[in-house]
Amino acid sequence: MNCIQKISQDIYWVGGNDRRLERFENMFPIPNGVCYNSYLIVDEKTALIDTVDVSISALFFDNITHVLNGRNLDYLIINHMEPDHCGNIEEIVKRYPSVRIVGNKKTFQFLEQFYDYDCKNNYLEINEGDKLSLGEHQLKFYYAPMVHWPEVMFTYEEKEKILFSADAFGTFGALSGNIFSDETDFNTVFLEEARRYYANIVGKYGGQVQSVLKKLSPFEIKMICPLHGPVWRKNLPFILEKYDYWSKYKPEKNGVVLVYASMYGNTENVMNVIASKLAFKGITDMRIYDVSKTHPSYIISDLWKYSHFIVGSPTYNMGLYYGMESLLRELEALQFQNRKVSIVGNYTWSCKSTAIMQEMLSKMKNIEIIGKPFELKSTMKREQEEALENLVDEFYQSII
Ligand code: FEO
Q1: Per residue in 302-332, pLDDT tens?
Q2: What Gene3D superfamilies would the database entry show (predicted)?
Q3: Fewer C-beta within 10 Å: the chain N or C terminus?
Q4: Tens digits of per-residue pLDDT, 287-310?
Q5: Residues 149, 189 within the same domain
Q6: From the CA of 84, how far away is ligand 1's center (Å)?
Protein backbone atom coordinates (compact mmCIF):
# COMPACT_ATOMS: atom_id res chain seq x y z
CA MET A 1 0.00 0.00 0.00
CA ASN A 2 1.42 3.35 -1.00
CA CYS A 3 2.12 5.97 1.64
CA ILE A 4 2.59 9.38 0.06
CA GLN A 5 2.17 13.00 1.09
CA LYS A 6 1.39 16.00 -1.04
CA ILE A 7 3.75 18.86 -0.27
CA SER A 8 2.28 21.26 -2.83
CA GLN A 9 -0.11 21.24 -5.78
CA ASP A 10 2.07 19.13 -8.09
CA ILE A 11 4.75 17.85 -5.78
CA TYR A 12 4.60 14.68 -3.72
CA TRP A 13 6.75 13.15 -1.02
CA VAL A 14 7.31 9.54 -2.04
CA GLY A 15 9.93 8.54 0.55
CA GLY A 16 9.70 6.27 3.56
CA ASN A 17 11.10 5.38 6.95
CA ASP A 18 13.40 2.71 8.31
CA ARG A 19 12.96 2.04 12.03
CA ARG A 20 14.84 -1.27 11.96
CA LEU A 21 18.30 -0.06 10.94
CA GLU A 22 20.63 -0.06 13.96
CA ARG A 23 23.33 2.22 12.63
CA PHE A 24 23.36 4.85 9.92
CA GLU A 25 26.40 4.37 7.65
CA ASN A 26 26.90 1.27 9.84
CA MET A 27 28.41 3.65 12.39
CA PHE A 28 25.94 6.02 14.03
CA PRO A 29 23.22 4.59 16.32
CA ILE A 30 19.75 5.68 15.25
CA PRO A 31 17.37 4.73 18.06
CA ASN A 32 14.59 6.73 16.39
CA GLY A 33 15.23 5.34 12.91
CA VAL A 34 15.78 7.41 9.81
CA CYS A 35 13.71 8.56 6.88
CA TYR A 36 14.72 8.71 3.25
CA ASN A 37 13.00 11.48 1.36
CA SER A 38 12.29 11.46 -2.33
CA TYR A 39 10.06 13.91 -4.18
CA LEU A 40 8.06 13.54 -7.36
CA ILE A 41 6.98 16.53 -9.48
CA VAL A 42 4.06 15.92 -11.81
CA ASP A 43 3.88 18.53 -14.57
CA GLU A 44 3.86 18.31 -18.39
CA LYS A 45 6.99 16.32 -17.68
CA THR A 46 7.51 14.25 -14.55
CA ALA A 47 10.63 14.41 -12.41
CA LEU A 48 11.74 12.34 -9.45
CA ILE A 49 14.19 14.04 -7.12
CA ASP A 50 16.53 11.39 -5.71
CA THR A 51 15.61 7.82 -4.87
CA VAL A 52 15.83 6.03 -1.49
CA ASP A 53 17.76 3.33 0.31
CA VAL A 54 17.18 -0.24 -0.87
CA SER A 55 15.66 -1.13 2.51
CA ILE A 56 12.43 0.62 1.52
CA SER A 57 12.40 -0.06 -2.23
CA ALA A 58 9.07 -1.92 -2.25
CA LEU A 59 7.17 0.96 -0.66
CA PHE A 60 9.04 3.50 -2.79
CA PHE A 61 7.93 1.87 -6.04
CA ASP A 62 4.36 1.59 -4.75
CA ASN A 63 4.53 5.31 -4.08
CA ILE A 64 5.84 6.45 -7.43
CA THR A 65 3.62 4.03 -9.37
CA HIS A 66 0.61 5.46 -7.53
CA VAL A 67 1.54 9.10 -8.11
CA LEU A 68 2.48 8.60 -11.77
CA ASN A 69 -0.81 6.79 -12.29
CA GLY A 70 0.28 5.25 -15.58
CA ARG A 71 2.42 8.15 -16.77
CA ASN A 72 6.05 7.79 -17.72
CA LEU A 73 8.88 9.10 -15.56
CA ASP A 74 10.77 11.66 -17.66
CA TYR A 75 13.58 12.72 -15.33
CA LEU A 76 15.44 11.37 -12.34
CA ILE A 77 17.44 14.12 -10.66
CA ILE A 78 20.35 12.93 -8.55
CA ASN A 79 21.32 15.55 -6.03
CA HIS A 80 23.50 13.12 -4.09
CA MET A 81 25.09 9.81 -5.08
CA GLU A 82 25.47 8.24 -1.63
CA PRO A 83 23.81 4.80 -1.69
CA ASP A 84 21.21 5.70 0.96
CA HIS A 85 19.62 7.75 -1.84
CA CYS A 86 20.71 5.86 -4.92
CA GLY A 87 19.83 2.27 -4.25
CA ASN A 88 17.03 2.26 -6.79
CA ILE A 89 18.48 3.90 -9.88
CA GLU A 90 18.86 0.62 -11.75
CA GLU A 91 15.25 -0.37 -11.07
CA ILE A 92 14.07 3.09 -12.14
CA VAL A 93 15.87 2.67 -15.47
CA LYS A 94 14.40 -0.82 -15.91
CA ARG A 95 10.87 0.43 -15.26
CA TYR A 96 11.21 3.70 -17.17
CA PRO A 97 13.80 2.99 -19.89
CA SER A 98 13.52 6.45 -21.47
CA VAL A 99 14.13 8.31 -18.18
CA ARG A 100 16.85 10.97 -18.37
CA ILE A 101 19.15 10.82 -15.36
CA VAL A 102 20.11 14.37 -14.43
CA GLY A 103 23.45 14.86 -12.71
CA ASN A 104 26.83 16.49 -13.03
CA LYS A 105 30.08 15.00 -14.21
CA LYS A 106 30.99 13.70 -10.74
CA THR A 107 27.50 12.25 -10.25
CA PHE A 108 28.02 9.96 -13.23
CA GLN A 109 31.56 9.12 -12.19
CA PHE A 110 30.27 7.93 -8.80
CA LEU A 111 27.29 6.16 -10.36
CA GLU A 112 29.70 4.08 -12.44
CA GLN A 113 31.93 3.44 -9.41
CA PHE A 114 29.08 2.11 -7.29
CA TYR A 115 27.00 0.28 -9.88
CA ASP A 116 27.75 -1.96 -12.82
CA TYR A 117 24.68 -1.43 -14.98
CA ASP A 118 25.15 0.61 -18.11
CA CYS A 119 22.72 3.48 -18.43
CA LYS A 120 24.98 6.01 -20.17
CA ASN A 121 22.33 6.62 -22.81
CA ASN A 122 20.07 7.95 -20.07
CA TYR A 123 22.55 10.56 -18.81
CA LEU A 124 21.68 14.25 -18.97
CA GLU A 125 24.76 16.08 -17.73
CA ILE A 126 24.19 19.53 -16.32
CA ASN A 127 26.45 22.32 -15.11
CA GLU A 128 26.13 24.91 -12.38
CA GLY A 129 23.11 27.18 -13.01
CA ASP A 130 21.60 25.06 -15.79
CA LYS A 131 17.82 24.98 -16.06
CA LEU A 132 15.36 22.22 -16.81
CA SER A 133 11.76 22.97 -17.73
CA LEU A 134 9.05 20.52 -16.70
CA GLY A 135 6.23 22.79 -17.96
CA GLU A 136 5.07 25.14 -15.23
CA HIS A 137 7.91 24.11 -12.97
CA GLN A 138 11.44 25.18 -13.82
CA LEU A 139 14.33 23.52 -12.04
CA LYS A 140 17.71 25.13 -11.62
CA PHE A 141 20.80 23.27 -10.46
CA TYR A 142 23.53 24.50 -8.15
CA TYR A 143 26.66 22.70 -7.06
CA ALA A 144 27.03 22.19 -3.32
CA PRO A 145 30.34 20.30 -3.20
CA MET A 146 31.20 18.51 0.06
CA VAL A 147 27.77 19.06 1.56
CA HIS A 148 28.27 16.15 2.06
CA TRP A 149 30.11 14.58 -0.91
CA PRO A 150 31.86 16.27 -3.85
CA GLU A 151 29.12 15.61 -6.42
CA VAL A 152 26.30 17.09 -4.30
CA MET A 153 24.04 19.62 -5.93
CA PHE A 154 20.91 21.47 -4.85
CA THR A 155 17.86 21.77 -7.09
CA TYR A 156 15.83 24.97 -6.89
CA GLU A 157 12.23 24.93 -8.13
CA GLU A 158 11.46 28.45 -9.28
CA LYS A 159 7.64 28.52 -9.34
CA GLU A 160 7.06 27.57 -5.72
CA LYS A 161 10.56 28.54 -4.59
CA ILE A 162 11.41 25.15 -3.18
CA LEU A 163 14.97 24.15 -2.40
CA PHE A 164 15.75 20.45 -2.69
CA SER A 165 18.80 20.48 -0.47
CA ALA A 166 20.24 16.95 -0.54
CA ASP A 167 21.63 16.00 2.91
CA ALA A 168 21.71 19.62 4.11
CA PHE A 169 19.09 20.53 6.74
CA GLY A 170 18.46 16.81 7.31
CA THR A 171 18.26 14.91 10.55
CA PHE A 172 18.31 11.41 11.99
CA GLY A 173 14.92 10.13 13.08
CA ALA A 174 11.99 8.58 11.25
CA LEU A 175 8.91 10.71 10.55
CA SER A 176 5.78 9.96 12.54
CA GLY A 177 3.16 10.76 9.94
CA ASN A 178 3.73 14.49 9.94
CA ILE A 179 6.08 15.50 7.19
CA PHE A 180 6.45 19.23 7.88
CA SER A 181 8.68 20.46 10.71
CA ASP A 182 5.94 22.85 11.84
CA GLU A 183 3.64 19.87 12.41
CA THR A 184 6.15 18.33 14.82
CA ASP A 185 7.55 19.44 18.16
CA PHE A 186 10.85 19.88 16.33
CA ASN A 187 12.85 21.15 19.31
CA THR A 188 11.88 18.16 21.43
CA VAL A 189 11.77 15.44 18.80
CA PHE A 190 14.37 16.39 16.20
CA LEU A 191 16.72 19.21 17.18
CA GLU A 192 19.24 17.09 19.12
CA GLU A 193 19.28 14.56 16.29
CA ALA A 194 19.59 17.28 13.65
CA ARG A 195 22.66 18.59 15.45
CA ARG A 196 24.12 15.08 15.87
CA TYR A 197 23.51 14.43 12.19
CA TYR A 198 25.13 17.72 11.17
CA ALA A 199 28.16 17.50 13.48
CA ASN A 200 29.02 13.92 12.61
CA ILE A 201 28.02 13.71 8.95
CA VAL A 202 28.65 17.21 7.58
CA GLY A 203 30.63 18.80 10.46
CA LYS A 204 34.00 18.58 8.74
CA TYR A 205 32.79 20.73 5.87
CA GLY A 206 31.81 23.94 7.66
CA GLY A 207 33.62 26.10 5.09
CA GLN A 208 31.76 24.46 2.21
CA VAL A 209 28.42 24.81 4.05
CA GLN A 210 29.16 28.50 4.56
CA SER A 211 29.88 28.90 0.81
CA VAL A 212 26.56 27.27 -0.07
CA LEU A 213 24.66 29.38 2.47
CA LYS A 214 26.18 32.48 0.84
CA LYS A 215 25.24 31.20 -2.60
CA LEU A 216 21.66 30.67 -1.43
CA SER A 217 21.32 34.02 0.32
CA PRO A 218 19.92 35.96 -2.71
CA PHE A 219 17.26 33.29 -3.31
CA GLU A 220 13.74 33.51 -2.05
CA ILE A 221 13.14 30.11 -0.44
CA LYS A 222 9.67 29.14 0.72
CA MET A 223 10.29 25.48 1.38
CA ILE A 224 13.35 23.34 2.08
CA CYS A 225 13.11 19.67 1.16
CA PRO A 226 16.05 17.68 2.54
CA LEU A 227 16.80 14.02 1.93
CA HIS A 228 16.33 13.10 5.61
CA GLY A 229 13.90 14.41 8.21
CA PRO A 230 11.04 16.88 8.03
CA VAL A 231 10.34 19.39 5.27
CA TRP A 232 10.63 23.08 6.20
CA ARG A 233 7.84 25.40 5.03
CA LYS A 234 7.61 27.69 8.12
CA ASN A 235 10.20 29.34 10.32
CA LEU A 236 13.00 28.69 7.81
CA PRO A 237 15.32 31.20 9.55
CA PHE A 238 15.40 28.83 12.55
CA ILE A 239 17.11 25.99 10.69
CA LEU A 240 19.17 28.35 8.50
CA GLU A 241 20.51 30.04 11.62
CA LYS A 242 21.34 26.69 13.22
CA TYR A 243 23.30 25.76 10.09
CA ASP A 244 25.08 29.09 10.21
CA TYR A 245 26.17 28.47 13.82
CA TRP A 246 27.11 24.85 13.28
CA SER A 247 29.09 25.51 10.12
CA LYS A 248 30.97 28.40 11.75
CA TYR A 249 31.82 26.06 14.65
CA LYS A 250 30.16 28.63 16.87
CA PRO A 251 28.73 27.39 20.19
CA GLU A 252 25.00 27.79 20.55
CA LYS A 253 25.11 28.01 24.34
CA ASN A 254 27.40 28.69 27.25
CA GLY A 255 27.80 25.36 28.94
CA VAL A 256 30.23 22.56 29.73
CA VAL A 257 30.73 19.04 28.42
CA LEU A 258 32.86 16.96 30.80
CA VAL A 259 34.10 13.90 28.97
CA TYR A 260 36.30 11.29 30.53
CA ALA A 261 37.84 7.88 30.23
CA SER A 262 38.14 6.05 33.53
CA MET A 263 39.22 2.48 34.25
CA TYR A 264 38.59 2.27 37.99
CA GLY A 265 36.52 5.39 38.63
CA ASN A 266 39.31 7.72 39.81
CA THR A 267 39.34 10.08 36.81
CA GLU A 268 35.56 9.91 36.82
CA ASN A 269 35.57 10.95 40.48
CA VAL A 270 37.60 14.10 39.71
CA MET A 271 35.30 15.00 36.83
CA ASN A 272 32.30 14.66 39.15
CA VAL A 273 34.02 16.85 41.75
CA ILE A 274 34.73 19.50 39.09
CA ALA A 275 31.13 19.40 37.88
CA SER A 276 29.84 19.76 41.45
CA LYS A 277 32.11 22.74 42.07
CA LEU A 278 30.92 24.37 38.83
CA ALA A 279 27.32 23.63 39.75
CA PHE A 280 27.88 25.24 43.16
CA LYS A 281 29.17 28.34 41.39
CA GLY A 282 25.97 28.48 39.36
CA ILE A 283 26.78 26.77 36.05
CA THR A 284 23.59 25.10 34.91
CA ASP A 285 24.20 23.60 31.49
CA MET A 286 26.55 20.64 31.94
CA ARG A 287 26.78 17.17 30.47
CA ILE A 288 29.08 14.41 31.72
CA TYR A 289 30.04 11.54 29.41
CA ASP A 290 32.09 8.37 29.75
CA VAL A 291 33.79 7.66 26.42
CA SER A 292 33.47 3.93 27.03
CA LYS A 293 29.74 4.15 27.55
CA THR A 294 28.32 6.76 25.18
CA HIS A 295 28.68 6.56 21.42
CA PRO A 296 31.05 9.37 20.35
CA SER A 297 28.46 10.82 17.97
CA TYR A 298 26.40 11.99 20.98
CA ILE A 299 29.42 13.49 22.72
CA ILE A 300 30.49 15.25 19.52
CA SER A 301 26.99 16.64 19.10
CA ASP A 302 27.04 18.21 22.57
CA LEU A 303 30.57 19.50 22.02
CA TRP A 304 29.16 21.26 18.94
CA LYS A 305 26.44 22.78 21.09
CA TYR A 306 28.35 24.08 24.11
CA SER A 307 31.10 26.64 24.59
CA HIS A 308 33.38 24.75 27.01
CA PHE A 309 34.60 21.27 27.67
CA ILE A 310 36.88 19.35 30.01
CA VAL A 311 38.70 16.17 29.02
CA GLY A 312 39.96 13.63 31.52
CA SER A 313 41.84 10.43 30.83
CA PRO A 314 44.26 7.95 32.35
CA THR A 315 47.47 6.96 30.67
CA TYR A 316 47.10 3.56 29.02
CA ASN A 317 49.95 1.46 27.69
CA MET A 318 52.20 4.55 27.90
CA GLY A 319 49.76 6.37 25.66
CA LEU A 320 46.24 7.74 25.80
CA TYR A 321 43.22 5.62 26.69
CA TYR A 322 41.84 4.36 23.40
CA GLY A 323 38.32 5.84 23.65
CA MET A 324 39.64 9.31 24.45
CA GLU A 325 42.27 9.14 21.75
CA SER A 326 39.73 8.18 19.14
CA LEU A 327 37.32 10.92 20.26
CA LEU A 328 40.01 13.61 20.03
CA ARG A 329 41.21 12.27 16.69
CA GLU A 330 37.66 12.42 15.35
CA LEU A 331 37.22 15.99 16.61
CA GLU A 332 40.38 17.02 14.81
CA ALA A 333 39.18 15.29 11.64
CA LEU A 334 35.87 17.15 11.90
CA GLN A 335 37.76 20.50 12.10
CA PHE A 336 36.26 21.11 15.53
CA GLN A 337 37.23 24.60 16.74
CA ASN A 338 36.45 27.74 18.77
CA ARG A 339 36.07 26.28 22.25
CA LYS A 340 37.70 26.50 25.67
CA VAL A 341 38.95 23.37 27.40
CA SER A 342 40.69 22.16 30.55
CA ILE A 343 42.58 18.92 30.97
CA VAL A 344 42.67 16.25 33.66
CA GLY A 345 45.34 13.55 33.28
CA ASN A 346 45.84 10.43 35.37
CA TYR A 347 48.73 7.97 35.66
CA THR A 348 50.21 5.40 37.96
CA TRP A 349 53.85 5.21 36.90
CA SER A 350 54.34 7.35 33.79
CA CYS A 351 52.13 10.30 32.89
CA LYS A 352 51.58 10.44 29.15
CA SER A 353 47.88 11.21 28.88
CA THR A 354 48.13 14.91 29.79
CA ALA A 355 50.81 15.67 27.20
CA ILE A 356 49.06 13.65 24.50
CA MET A 357 45.72 15.36 25.11
CA GLN A 358 47.46 18.75 25.09
CA GLU A 359 49.16 17.93 21.82
CA MET A 360 46.00 16.63 20.17
CA LEU A 361 44.00 19.67 21.29
CA SER A 362 46.73 22.02 20.10
CA LYS A 363 46.24 20.73 16.55
CA MET A 364 42.64 21.99 16.56
CA LYS A 365 41.94 25.57 15.54
CA ASN A 366 41.22 28.12 18.25
CA ILE A 367 40.92 25.66 21.11
CA GLU A 368 42.10 27.56 24.17
CA ILE A 369 43.42 25.52 27.09
CA ILE A 370 42.28 27.04 30.37
CA GLY A 371 44.45 26.69 33.47
CA LYS A 372 47.21 24.28 34.30
CA PRO A 373 46.30 20.69 33.43
CA PHE A 374 45.37 18.83 36.58
CA GLU A 375 47.23 15.58 37.10
CA LEU A 376 46.44 12.86 39.55
CA LYS A 377 48.62 9.95 40.41
CA SER A 378 46.13 7.05 40.48
CA THR A 379 43.76 8.91 42.80
CA MET A 380 43.27 12.49 43.85
CA LYS A 381 44.83 13.38 47.22
CA ARG A 382 43.72 15.98 49.79
CA GLU A 383 46.82 18.11 49.15
CA GLN A 384 45.64 18.57 45.56
CA GLU A 385 42.37 20.22 46.53
CA GLU A 386 43.74 23.75 46.23
CA ALA A 387 45.15 23.09 42.76
CA LEU A 388 41.81 21.70 41.63
CA GLU A 389 39.95 24.61 43.16
CA ASN A 390 42.24 27.02 41.29
CA LEU A 391 41.60 25.24 38.00
CA VAL A 392 37.84 25.26 38.55
CA ASP A 393 37.97 29.00 39.42
CA GLU A 394 39.87 29.81 36.26
CA PHE A 395 37.61 27.65 34.15
CA TYR A 396 34.51 29.22 35.70
CA GLN A 397 35.86 32.72 35.01
CA SER A 398 36.26 31.80 31.35
CA ILE A 399 32.55 30.89 31.16
CA ILE A 400 30.87 33.86 32.82
FE1 FEO B 1 22.01 10.77 3.22
FE2 FEO B 1 25.24 11.74 2.35
O3 FEO B 1 23.69 10.66 2.35
Answers
A1: 999 999 999 999 999 999 999 999 999 999 9
A2: 3.40.50.360, Ribonuclease Z/Hydroxyacylglutathione hydrolase-like
A3: N
A4: 999 999 999 999 999 999 999 999
A5: yes
A6: 6
